[in-house]
């Protein structure tokens, strides 16, 4: 008895129908039903001459490959920890400390640099002008006083009568007299032509000299017996970083008020120089002025 014919293909015997969800592979039969559902050939398996293309249903997402026994971060079993992945944060403490130290070093270097420049800077200006008669000093005295630049602050009047006043100053020349500031100046009060009576002119000069005695009240003052007709030296109260000496001397009808002052420069602070040195300069100046 003949086998029943396939109604769709009557000339061929019936073939087993493939299992839905598996494409027939040349040289392979239907999948073994004993295999677990969801397992097929290894993902890396490829038939020669064929490319396997995964079919994805519209709206469905392609699952990522995952080895058995491991879970991706965020899956149940291993909660995702914020900040547990990615490069670790950099510690900027060292950088901040380094910048702070650099800024402090620059500030300190700037302060010390300014102090050094001030310390080595030599005071004074140009060579000055030629001194007038009555203001000239010897080169040896100028060297002792560390001054070389003359400046006429006030010239005497040209009046035929009356008191004639002048003001002379010897200051420093930059680069010549050292870095320690010094200044020598003196006021000249000339009563020679104050009136036609010589005795009265002497009295006027003496009165001018005694007026400085009131100025010396409260100051350290001492009388000098062997200088001019009368003389006294005054050491006014001054800051600790400054030395100043005033010497007032009268000879005949002329009075001189001599002032010598200065200080010694230091790297951190200035200091006064010995008073005895200042007295020596003031006295020598008075001797030269009264000897003319």
Structure classification: alpha+beta
Largest sheet, described in full?
A: 7 strands, antiparallel
- Strand-residue fraction? 15-25%
Number of strands: 7
CATH architecture call of the domain at 139-290: Sandwich
Roughly how much helix do the residues carry, as a percent range? 10-25%
Unreliable stretches covering 5 or more consecutive residues: 49-56, 63-67
What is the alpha-carbon Rg in Å?
A: 56 Å
Strand order of the largest sheet: 1-2-3-7-6-5-4
Order of helices and strands: HHEEEHEEEEH
What value does the average pLDDT take?
78
Number of helices: 4
Report what the structure shows.
The structure is a single chain. The chain is 24% helix and 18% strand. With 292 residues, the chain is of the alpha+beta class. It has a domain at 139-290: Jelly Rolls, CATH 2.60.120. A seven-stranded antiparallel β-sheet has the order 1-2-3-7-6-5-4.
Write the layout of secondary structure elements.
Elements: H1 93-120, H2 139-145, E1 149-154, E2 164-171, E3 182-190, H3 198-215, E4 220-224, E5 230-235, E6 243-251, E7 254-262, H4 275-290
Antiparallel strand pairs: 1-2, 2-3, 3-7, 4-5, 5-6, 6-7
């Amino acid at each position: 008895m003949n086998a029943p014919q396939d109604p769709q293909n009557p000339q061929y015997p019936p073939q087993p129908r493939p299992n839905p969800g598996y494409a027939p592979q040349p040289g392979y039969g239907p999948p073994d039903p004993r295999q677990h559902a969801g397992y097929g050939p290894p993902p890396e398996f490829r038939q020669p001459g064929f490319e396997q293309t995964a079919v994805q249903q519209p709206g469905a997402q392609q699952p990522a490959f995952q080895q058995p026994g491991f879970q991706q971060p965020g899956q149940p079993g291993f909660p995702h920890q914020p900040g547990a992945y990615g490069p670790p944060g950099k510690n900027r403490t060292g950088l901040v400390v380094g910048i702070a130290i650099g800024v402090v070093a620059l500030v300190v270097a700037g302060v010390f640099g300014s102090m050094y420049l001030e310390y080595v800077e030599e005071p004074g200006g140009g060579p000055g002008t030629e001194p007038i008669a009555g203001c000239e000093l010897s080169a040896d005295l100028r060297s002792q006083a560390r001054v070389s630049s003359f400046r006429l602050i006030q010239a005497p009047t040209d009046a035929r009568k009356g008191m004639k006043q002048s003001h002379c100053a010897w200051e420093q020349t930059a680069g010549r007299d050292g870095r320690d500031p010094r200044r020598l100046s003196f006021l000249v009060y000339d009563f020679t032509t104050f009136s036609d009576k010589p005795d009265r002119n002497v009295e006027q000069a003496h009165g001018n000299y005694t007026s400085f005695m009131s100025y010396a009240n409260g100051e350290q003052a001492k009388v000098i017996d062997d200088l001019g007709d009368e003389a006294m030296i005054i050491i006014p109260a001054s800051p600790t970083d400054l030395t100043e000496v005033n010497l007032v001397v009268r000879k005949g009808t002329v009075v001189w008020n001599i002032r010598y002052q200065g200080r010694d420069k230091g790297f951190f602070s200035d200091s006064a120089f010995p008073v005895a040195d200042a007295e020596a300069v003031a006295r020598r100046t008075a001797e030269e002025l009264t000897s003319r």
